[in-house]
Design goal:
The structure is a homodimer of 535-residue chains.
Chain A (H helix, E strand, L loop, with lengths): L1 H15 L4 E2 L2 H6 L13 E3 L4 H14 L3 E4 L18 E4 L6 E5 L4 E4 L5 H10 L4 E2 L11 H6 L15 E7 L5 E3 L33 E8 L1 E2 L3 E9 L5 H13 L7 E5 H6 L17 H11 L4 E9 L1 H15 L6 E3 L1 H13 L6 H18 L32 E5 L2 E3 L2 H17 L5 E6 L4 E10 L4 H21 L20 H13 L15
Parallel strand pairs in A: 2-4, 3-4
Antiparallel strand pairs in A: 1-2, 5-6, 6-10, 7-11, 8-9, 8-10, 12-14, 12-15, 13-14, 13-18, 16-19, 17-19, 18-19
Chain lengths: 535, 535
């Protein structure tokens, strides 16, 4: 093996130059960092700059029988970050393939490479003053758009379903062939990035959440900038209010009236978004004592559940939607709306205030408003990475919010439910005790992501520098994963820690995926083990 | 071969009983009928009533090496109807698998088998007074919903993209295994029919426009009945008005303001929807003389292009959208709106009028309005099959509108274009002369089907009882197909006549599809040749 891999590295170096082929210990350490309890250690890292480079990398890997593990920017926080599923793979870091190949304003789409970051596309659009928004996630300015789309991630605007809003892929297969999906394989095709399904079997789905190919470019749809944008907020005081608010919101989502993702965060989610764990007040104990939790909730003026979302359209449409939302939620409480003027004012005020004394709290609140508002308009921010610091103990506020730099512990579990209040209650009641039993707070957001489905994004935030806590986090995660599967709420995506267990209670589906793998990647050299439990 | 097939039929008879296994000449004749110039002749027909039956059929077919060709209801008019791609296959007629397995009103979805017709689901919903609409096509009450969805057909309401609005499949593979997609393969999964993508590679696309499996049940999303519905109409007088109207409508589609399909039919499309070819006035000549075309256009008060669509929402939303549409289309002409009261009045009047004398024309017009209005509300009708009679010569008005009963000739070609006016003009200018050269009228509808794409649904209507005209239709079709591919506007679906030619100028895509076929159907016994040009 060593000889084979040495030989492969020599050939990669000959092809790419030494600067783009790394296996020094510093690089290995950098790419072994992980927010999960166990990261994995790669053999080395390659930095292709073109599709042809990717083909070359594949060809050499194939001859050596070494698995290549493509990452876009490696910001898959809490799901595996930049780590491969298993040790001993070679990371194919696509961050230098970061060209924006096309932005079509008339038809509102872009074609981009995997290395393009959220900030980069945002800046491109801003600089040119294009009347377009793109949908971004809270994972920070440096996260890859393609990477998130291939993981079938969700953002916050009406274009939040990223995979649905993608169209036309270029893919390098495990045998080096280049596949163009949709109409892209027809010469002079004119509808490649505007019509998703193409002609013949629709193949694009194969390259999401899989190890079936390396996507080297992708069309993504952009949202025409609306005439008007509003935010809405509602707080529900009691834990048991969750099902009522979901059932009240469902008709608004189902009818397409509310097009944005609706975010329903519990008090812990909100609190952890702007402050760290109150170690002193808790006397160093975890999980957060219930009395302290209630006190923090009261002090901040939050509810047990806190609803937020966006409204988009002409001025008239937004007015009408405000009326509809107010009417539907009236039995639950008074909905607050924030329009563009108030949002602009909040931004000015936020910048004027100082982050100390009595001003600090107001500043933090306004900052949250501005940043949530930005996200609902497709503006990237790293503000939501602040929550990763929640359980970091005995260390000062770090300069960077990069979870890998801070060595914070973070595991997500994201079960999907039908949009029925009782389903959310069922889930929350069953998983909360598991968090608490292991000494963690159930940080839970229930997000209404499509017309009929909602996801509970739940976080185990732990101190990765504390070994015993790290062990508990791992066991807690395993128990949570088993529990959501038992309840029938499988997740919408998986961390590398769960990937070997995805076939539990299921067979043909994963057999079929595995059979297709053998056709597209006969030597099994792409992303070994990624969403492939039978490997 | 004969012995093998005799043996297979004996085994099918043993399994299903003689009544559900047919190869008498009458049945063979019935299933050889086609609206295309060449139908194909099957070996026989099987009628499974359950998924287990389908597995049995597959198992026996596999041992005999005979291809099974599943059809849902066989109403794939103008694309191959109930015919297999090649002679000598056994039709697997799924029409008796027609259970509505579930209708969930709260989450607005249904789970149905392939034999469920548009009328059947419509009646089910009506009888129970459920506040739901489903999206139907103009292909008549007896057409299959699953069949159309697997062909990636389009309807007229905001739920018009049928494949997008489907969720959770049960599929019998060519080796007899049952695959459940999405979350369906997990025990007690609760989100199978509400969340489309599941976990791991998204496989559903493989079973649309393909020969990769036999779908035995499918979840489809239903539309919550809106508070208000309006239709809008606009006529454009000149041929060259088409690009202007598309460019004016694009922002309304892109912004999601108009959610329905927008139908832009040319004069010929409208005329052929309520009258047959004017053989006498044309002196028996084809194609329709330009002066006569203009006279008919004038007499009926149609434009060269005729726009129609629907608006859905609360009363307030519909009012606002009317304002937006009126404003956007103002430079082009005066948009007419028809609200529920006017539509109800039209329906009453239509039923009161007689279909003769001076009342006939008004009756026909009102009938069109009522039926288009119905379709925009998901009400199945056979009215749009009337157009299939256009070029039927020397025969009286038939009792049935079934194209196969009437032996009418019909071929569709449906290229997809980016939603840009100049693309439609480019297409229309290049294909119209081809129609005319072969003696056919360019019957063209440009439909804005998604936010960014439009389809030109074009028809060769010909007299299938006239041999020379049938020959011309075939050659005309081949030339049209080559032309749209040359222009870069590949179709969104294909007739069995084009399936052997889909790989033109393209390779890896079809190689990949073919490779996957070998895994899912190792003996190649499902739908031989269907969207598989390399077979």
């Amino acid at each position: 093996m060593t000889t084979k891999s040495d030989e492969a590295f020599r050939r990669w170096e000959a092809a790419f130059g030494e600067e783009r082929v790394r296996r020094d210990s510093e690089t290995i350490e950098l790419y072994s960092r992980c927010t999960l309890p166990h990261g994995t250690t790669p053999l080395g890292v390659l930095y292709p700059v073109s599709t042809a480079d990717v083909q070359t990398a594949v060809s050499i890997a194939r001859q050596a029988g070494i698995s290549l593990y493509p990452i876009s920017r490696g910001k898959n926080w809490g799901y595996g970050d930049a780590c491969a599923v298993t040790d001993g793979q070679v990371i194919l870091d696509l961050s230098r393939m970061n060209r924006i190949l096309e932005v079509n304003s008339e038809l509102a789409y872009a074609v981009i490479e995997p290395g393009v970051t959220q900030q980069q596309l945002f800046d491109y659009i801003e600089e040119r003053g294009l009347p377009l928004w793109f949908d971004c996630t809270g994972s920070g300015p440096e996260a890859s758009i393609v990477g998130n789309t291939l993981e079938r991630g969700f953002g916050h605007t009406p274009y939040g379903d990223h995979f649905y809003n993608s169209c036309g892929m270029e893919v390098v297969l495990g045998d080096g062939r280049i596949l163009r999906t949709g109409y892209g394989h027809y010469r002079d095709a004119k509808a490649t990035h505007v019509f998703k399904w193409g002609l013949g079997p629709y193949l694009d789905g194969l390259f999401t959440q899989s190890s079936l190919g390396i996507v080297t470019s992708l069309g993504i749809w952009l949202m025409p900038k609306p005439e008007c944008f509003n935010m809405f907020f509602l707080s529900m005081p009691e834990d048991d209010d969750l099902p009522r608010v979901i059932d009240a919101l469902r008709p608004l989502k189902l009818s397409g009236r509310i097009k944005s993702l609706v975010h329903i965060g519990n008090d812990l989610r909100i609190i952890s978004s702007f402050q760290r764990y109150p170690w002193d007040d808790a006397g160093g104990q975890t999980p957060l004592p219930e009395t302290l939790r209630r006190a923090l909730r009261k002090k901040g003026g939050f509810g047990a559940w806190n609803v937020s979302g966006g409204i988009y359209g002409s001025n008239g449409e937004v007015r009408e939607m405000r009326r509809q939302i107010r009417k539907a939620l009236k039995p639950l409480g008074s909905v607050r709306f924030v329009g563009p003027k108030m949002l602009a004012f909040a931004e000015v005020l936020w910048k004027l205030l100082r982050s100390r004394g009595w001003q600090k709290e107001l500043q933090v609140m306004l900052g949250s408003l501005v940043k949530v508002g930005g996200l609902l308009q497709g503006r990237p921010t790293d503000a939501f990475l602040y929550g990763t610091l929640w359980r970091m103990a005995g260390r000062d506020e770090p300069e960077s919010l990069d979870p890998l730099v801070n060595n914070v512990g973070l595991m997500w579990i994201s079960p999907i439910m039908p949009m029925i209040g009782s389903a959310a209650q069922d889930l929350v009641r069953n998983i909360s005790p598991i968090f608490l039993r292991y000494g963690f707070e159930p940080l839970i957001t229930v997000s209404l992501i499509t017309e009929r489905a909602m996801v509970a994004v739940t976080t185990i935030a732990y101190d990765r520098e504390n070994t015993s806590e790290t062990d508990k986090a791992r066991t807690c995660y395993e128990e949570l994963f088993r529990e959501i599967m038992r309840l029938g709420y499988a997740p919408y995506r998986s961390s590398i820690a769960s990937m070997p267990h995805l076939a539990i209670g299921s067979d043909v589906f994963w057999d079929v995926a595995s059979g297709i793998k053998k056709v597209l990647d006969p030597d099994g050299i792409i992303s070994k083990g990624r969403y492939d439990p039978l490997v």
